[in-house]
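Local shape tokens

___
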Amino acid sequence: MLGTFVNTIAIVVGGLVGLLFGQAFPDKIKKTVIQGIGLAILLIGGSMALQTKNSLIIISSLVLGGIIGEWIDIELRLQHFGEWLERKFAREGQETGFTKAFVTTSLIYCVGAMAIMGSLESGLNGNNNILFAKSMLDGITAVIFASSMGIGVLVSAIPVFIYQGSITMAAVLLQGILSPAVIAEMSATGGLLILGIGFNILEIKEIKVGNLLPAVFIVVPITLLFTKFHLGM
């Protein structure tokens, strides 16, 4: 849970800084810092991806996961879910800056591959690097959002803590069930998705990371299948 605690605190601190001093930071500084974090995310994703012992498992998982993700169109459904939430919280005549800030930033911080993969990695391997990187990103964006949207940004730390903490605890329970080989391939597959996030942040190439998320779960039966029949490179 350390990564989730740090992430929650980063949003609160970033929000406070944004409320007090947000206007003092030039946009070019914010952009350069985010680009630096994007490079760090590429490093984290690449190191995770190299944990694989069989690249065929990763390829198969990404292909099947991508087909399922596109069929469901996870990214579009997440977008619609966010729009629905905003309509529910900000009904006609009741819309406030606080509500808009809370809903908008909660979705940004919770709905994404880094939140899911970081929480899974934290629970399965005790590795909080993804959530630490996410914390830096969330802290910086909290400065930006709070400076323009207000105190509702700080309150979004609550759903982040509940959401990521729940995934981490569920992963801890799975740790005793999944074999080290399965966990390693899950981490490697997730690492490639983290690389995709890095590309998106750096605006190198827009990758539908959300639609590839099923690969992280598809990798479990595929790894078991490859292990049972001794399939490999």
Summary: The first helix runs from residue 2 to 21.
